[in-house]
Design a protein that fits this description.
Elements (H helix, E strand, L loop, with lengths): L2 E9 L18 H17 L7 E10 L7 H14 L7 E6 L6 H10 L3 E7 L3 H7 L5 H13 L5 E7 L6 H14 L3 E6 L7 H6 L12 H17 L3 E4 L2 E3 L6 H7 L4 E4 L4 E4 L2 E5 L3 H7 L3 H4 E6 L2 H12 L6 E2 H17 L3 E4 L2 E4 L1 H5 L1 H8 L2
Parallel strand pairs: 1-2, 1-9, 2-3, 3-4, 4-5, 5-6
Antiparallel strand pairs: 6-8, 7-8, 10-11, 11-12, 13-15, 14-15
Length: 374
């Protein structure tokens, strides 16, 4: 019987690097992007046939901003995927898109390629906050892109939002949430801003930054999280993971696969993979990738064979992010004492044979994970 496989396609280009972003991405000219598409297709074509062993169940095109590519380039990538992989069981195909980079022609090409889900990186409905984040678009441009997607038949749309932006208040965040709820997307991802090392935001808002007092306090951030859950649940969205909400039947299958540790194959610059108990990654050097994308020995790096203990740690760390948690029986022998301690302290609870984070536990989830895996 063939095993499920998820595919991730990395497109490392964007119009402009956002001030908070530490992803492997950056601006490029059209010639470089075309060279990259050709290299990506060569990588796909070079992979040994997996059709006998695996069936692809989800595809996620992420970045960067995949929507900076032309529609014809996306179609060529998917044509190569269909030649190499067993795609008949695919039910969800997502592409990330930024407002201002989407056209009707591109949306038609996405549909032609088999893409049935779009994830829009809005982040805020406040133009001042968007400018502060370094986004290239306004809320009005997002609305135009969103409506175009609806007109072209996309009935599964996610909107990414970021809270705890400098100088943001509960009231300004509620204004963003209210505007998004009026649009009735099928899925909403609501993340809290993380000031990442090496970004412009770190210089301003990091430990040594001269503007870090502009960030909301921990109490304000926690209140924003709690209010978000309340507002979205009242509007018919279920929180199925710490930061993700969906209408019934619209939870992101691809991301659930990550949290459930399904096998996945990453294609493209810097893309990571998990096949069996082996984790590995493509090179992050663009010149190397463009030259050797079809040579697995030269493009692959950081290969690691996971031990049973490391696999269990990942099951716990990733699985507890989900609302339903993980099977207690599966991990009890490994860390039963720590689990009982967290239950007694009110950070975990047991239900129907599963253990999961309580509302208190979600607030300090990193602490809970560290205690369990200590």
């Amino acid at each position: 019987m063939r095993r499920d496989l998820e595919l991730y396609i990395h497109i490392p280009f964007c119009v402009k690097k956002c001030a908070y972003c530490d992803f492997l991405s950056g601006p490029a000219d059209e010639e470089t992007m075309e060279y990259y598409v050709r290299a990506l297709i060569r990588e796909i074509e070079s992979i040994e046939s997996m059709k006998e062993m695996y069936r692809v169940v989800t595809v996620f095109v992420g970045g960067g901003t995949p929507s900076v590519l032309g529609g014809e380039q996306i179609e060529r990538i998917f044509a190569a995927l269909r030649e190499k992989f067993a795609m008949e069981s695919v039910r969800e195909v997502t592409i990330e898109a930024n407002p201002g980079t989407v056209t009707r022609e591109k949306l038609k090409a996405y549909r032609s390629a088999g893409i049935n889900r779009i994830s829009f990186g809005l982040q805020s409905a406040n133009n001042g906050e968007l400018k502060q984040l370094g986004r290239i678009h306004t809320y009005e441009e997002f609305l135009e892109s969103y409506m175009l997607a609806r007109e072209e038949g996309f009935d599964n749309i996610n909107i990414d939002l970021i809270s705890a932006i400098p100088n943001q208040t509960v009231e300004s965040w509620k204004s963003t949430v209210d505007r998004i709820l009026k649009l009735q997307p099928e899925h909403i991802s609501a993340y809290s801003l993380i000031v990442e090392e090496g970004t412009p935001f770190e210089k301003m808002y990091g430990e040594d930054g001269n503007r870090k007092e502009e960030l909301p306090s921990e109490e304000e951030e926690r209140l924003i999280y709690q209010k978000t859950k309340k507002w979205l649940q009242e509007a018919g969205y279920e929180r199925y993971e710490i930061s993700n909400y969906a209408k019934k039947g619209y939870a992101c299958r691809h991301n659930l696969g990550y949290w459930e540790r399904k096998e996945y194959l990453g294609l493209g610059l810097g893309a990571s993979s998990l096949i069996g108990n082996v984790r590995f990654q493509n090179t992050e050097e663009m010149k190397t990738y463009l030259k050797y994308s079809d040579d697995v020995r030269k493009r692959k790096q950081n290969e690691e064979v996971l031990t049973k203990e490391e696999e269990l740690e990942e099951i716990i760390f990733l699985g507890l992010r989900k609302k339903d948690g993980i099977s207690k029986k599966e991990v009890d022998f490994f860390c039963g004492e720590q689990i009982e301690k967290m239950i007694c302290q009110g950070f975990l609870e047991e239900k129907d044979g599963n253990i999961r984070l309580t509302e208190r536990g979600i607030d300090i989830s990193n602490y809970v994970f560290a205690e369990i895996l200590a």
